[in-house]
Amino acid sequence: MLLLSAVVAALGSLLFGFDTAVISGTTEALRQVYALNDNLLGFTVSSALIGTMIGALLAGRPADWWGRRPVLALLAVFFALSAVGCALAWNWHALLFFRWLGGVAVGGASVVCPMYITEIAPARLRGRLVAVSQLNIVVGILAAYFSNYLVARGLGAEHPQAWRWMFGVMTAPAAAFLVTALLIPESPRWLVKRGRRAQAEAVLARFGHEHPAGEAREIADSLKAEIAGARPRLFQRQYLKPLLLACMIGAFNQLDGINAVIYYTADIFRMAGADQTSALSQSVIIGFTNLAMTILAMALIDRIGRKALLLIGSVTFVLSHALAAWVFATHAQGWIVIVAMMGVVGSHAYSQGAVVWVIINELLPNAVRASGSAVVCFLIWVLCAGVSWSFPVVAARSGAYAFGFFALMMVLQFILVARFLPETKGVSLEELQQRLGAAD
What are the pLDDT digits (tens) for 418-432? Predict the structure, then answer.
């Protein structure tokens, strides 16, 4: 039941990944259909990210009011409406609206999916299970690349309706997510918060926790102020350290440049001389790299820890971004372009990508996890919007500048993580709360 519930919740993350990457196969068609310049194309791509900011910021409160499970089902409805709407978009403004709606779903999923898995998982398995969420993001990205390629091969890369089919494919997994989200148990920590302790103990027992009664008592102790009716404020000194640490990791999750590559994979390969179909097939290679390195991260995250993965990833990020900057500066073509992009995507997959959704929810205390996660995810999506909107404009002048900036950010990440971030593997959420000085 534990693994099944984690996989079902992570379907939201699969749709998150699919929605994020699917537009990479449509950018050239959208340029032509709607006569978009670089700036308007950047806005079209980032329109979804405006929605993610709103979804991330607003998802925490409904998840606290109604529970994690009903919110997951609502997000599935938004994903389905977005897929159908983008496929049938009758003008540019309609496309922007439905991309925005999909972004709301992505933002909400980025908060609620990993939060739910964090709250149901035993400490010894938490990193691996929350990494299932990241694995599904990666599978969603790969599925988007692959379906884009199949549509382009089946209809022809220049077919005027191909881009509509690329968007519409997401309807099927969205429907599956809606049905399965209604079948999983509610989060035991939410049940305790609502005074339903017996139900929480039963859920903890179903999820394989060794001492469900004792753990329910620890959860209740960590939430005693809120259970008594006093809603804790996120922005207070008690929670400042874990919130700042979570925001630091969240910020570097976008400043590592991953979404510049994910959103514009096909464009980057076209800049390097590939035709449309070849660019889409090369995007599939990037997707498989992402998947393979994410699986590696799942094997390592509960063994060597979150901090070690971030430090090692910082080093390989710097090397990969430096190579990418050289590729753009020298106008190199061929296999070296694929190597550079594989390096960037692989570095993200086994470090930042695998760690971010785990550690954000580990660092944030029980009483403010939903609201704190919403703030951190809002920051992530603000930065993502900035990166995705500005990248085609900067890259049109010199991609070397963009990748050089990302390399510098990863040097900064190495320094700050080494100095300030605690290791969280194998520690209960309640004990982490004590260590960070955030206990009531």
Answer: 999 888 777 777 777
